[in-house]
């Protein structure tokens, strides 16, 4: 088996915007930082990833994106180039994109050695499933056991951790929740641990649906979370107390009207995956629909918006 490896050299400030997009179109993404960048982030990275600076490029960053050999690499390259062209990236300087075919290595599991326990929000403790027995877990921790496999959602990405933080603020016992674009299922598990029940987790990606089901079993909440394929809220008919979606801004924009319709009175919509530059556009659309903006959290150039349905 061979893989297409697409290499994107760019400035560090583009990492988050590019990574979230590339994760949605590929089989895997890894980011290599230059030594200097790594040094400046060592405190951030060390506990979760224990990186070795000698593995990294000498300047800026290199994002490696993987597609299996059956995928149409020319069309994927076009998608990437179009995204780079049309997105207001933080830096448009010196972006170089190239592709090559490489032999299979066990990179699907390689990243696991860099992924370790960490805390998110006030009380969440994310534990890779393969480290659970060794984890030093406090009684107060709400433990999310996770094996994201090839789905998005380890919890270390700002957009995911911001959603978990907002869920801590809004979920009340027995709230009915829908998690749109569940990925690894991490936000549904978080909602369950906070007391939500009758949770629905949806995604358009088959692999994410499979991975999320496995994670629900792992966390003993598969009875409370139904998993189904869906394109945003287009065919949804049930009503919810909380809707959470961590996708990209233009996709969130497509679901704002449906979210308003499907929320119960005073229901809350948590939306993330939104770059700071798109915040005003999204909040304006939310307000037009009747939402009140209750809180906006920001980290690493990403925002998560908490909106409430008011009549
Ligand atoms: C950034 S990941 C978020 C995963 C997880 N919820 C988290 O917060 O870490 C976005 C997810 O949305 C899914 N997605 C993208 N477009 C979608 C759509 N139109 N309808 C449903 N899910 C979608 C992707 O397959 C992916 O699993």
Automatic annotation (TrEMBL):
Query: What top-level class of enzyme does the UniProt entry assign?
Result: transferase
Q: Which InterPro entries match?
A: Ribosomal_L11_MeTrfase_PrmA (IPR050078), Ribosomal_PrmA_MeTrfase (IPR004498), SAM-dependent_MTases_sf (IPR029063)
Q: Does the keyword Membrane apply?
A: no
* Keyword Nucleotide-binding carried by entry: no
Catalytic activity from the UniProt record:
L-lysyl-[protein] + 3 S-adenosyl-L-methionine = N(6),N(6),N(6)-trimethyl-L-lysyl-[protein] + 3 S-adenosyl-L-homocysteine + 3 H(+)
Q: Which GO terms describe its cellular component?
A: cytoplasm; ribosome
Q: Which residues bind S-adenosyl-L-methionine?
A: 160, 181, 203, 246
Which EC numbers does the record give? 2.1.1.-
Subcellular location(s) of the protein: Cytoplasm
What is a biological process (GO) this protein takes part in? methylation
**Gene Ontology terms, MF aspect:** protein methyltransferase activity
Query: Which SUPFAM superfamilies does this UniProt record tie to the protein?
Result: S-adenosyl-L-methionine-dependent methyltransferases
The UniProt entry, under PANTHER family, shows: ELECTRON TRANSFER FLAVOPROTEIN BETA SUBUNIT LYSINE METHYLTRANSFERASE
Q: Which family, according to UniProt? A: Belongs to the methyltransferase superfamily. PrmA family.
Q: What does this protein do?
A: Methylates ribosomal protein L11.
User: What HAMAP family does the database record attribute to this sequence?
Assistant: Methyltr_PrmA (MF_00735)
- The name this protein carries in UniProt is Ribosomal protein L11 methyltransferase
The organism's lineage? Bacteria, Bacillati, Bacillota, Bacilli, Bacillales
């Amino acid at each position: 088996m061979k893989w297409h490896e697409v290499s994107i050299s760019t400035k560090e400030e583009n990492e988050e915007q590019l990574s979230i997009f590339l994760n949605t179109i590929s089989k895997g993404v890894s980011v290599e930082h230059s030594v200097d960048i790594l040094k400046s982030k060592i405190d951030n990275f060390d506990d979760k990833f224990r990186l070795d600076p000698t593995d990294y490029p000498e300047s800026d960053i290199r994002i490696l994106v993987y597609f299996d050999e059956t995928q149409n690499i020319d069309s994927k390259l076009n998608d990437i180039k179009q995204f780079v062209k049309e997105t207001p990236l933080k830096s448009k300087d010196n972006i170089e994109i190239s592709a090559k075919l490489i032999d299979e290595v066990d990179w699907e599991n390689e990243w696991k050695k860099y992924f370790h326990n960490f805390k998110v929000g006030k009380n969440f403790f994310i534990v890779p499933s393969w480290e659970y027995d060794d984890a030093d877990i406090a009684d107060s921790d709400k433990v999310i056991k996770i094996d994201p496999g090839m789905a998005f959602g380890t919890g270390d990405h700002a957009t995911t951790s911001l959603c978990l933080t907002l869920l801590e603020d809004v979920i009340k016992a027995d709230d009915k929740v829908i998690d749109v674009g569940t990925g690894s299922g991490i936000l549904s598990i978080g909602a369950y641990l906070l007391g939500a029940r009758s949770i629905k987790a949806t995604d358009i990606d088959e692999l994410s649906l499979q991975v999320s089901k496995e994670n629900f079993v792992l966390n003993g909440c598969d009875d409370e979370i139904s998993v189904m394929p869906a394109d945003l809220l287009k065919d949804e008919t049930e009503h919810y107390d909380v809707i959470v979606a961590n996708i990209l801004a233009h996709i969130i924009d497509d679901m704002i009207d449906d979210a308003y319709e499907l929320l119960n009175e005073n229901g809350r919509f948590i939306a993330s995956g939104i770059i700071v530059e798109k915040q005003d556009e999204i909040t304006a659309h939310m307000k037009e629909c009747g939402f009140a903006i209750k809180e906006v959290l920001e980290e690493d150039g990403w925002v998560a918006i908490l909106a409430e349905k008011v009549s």
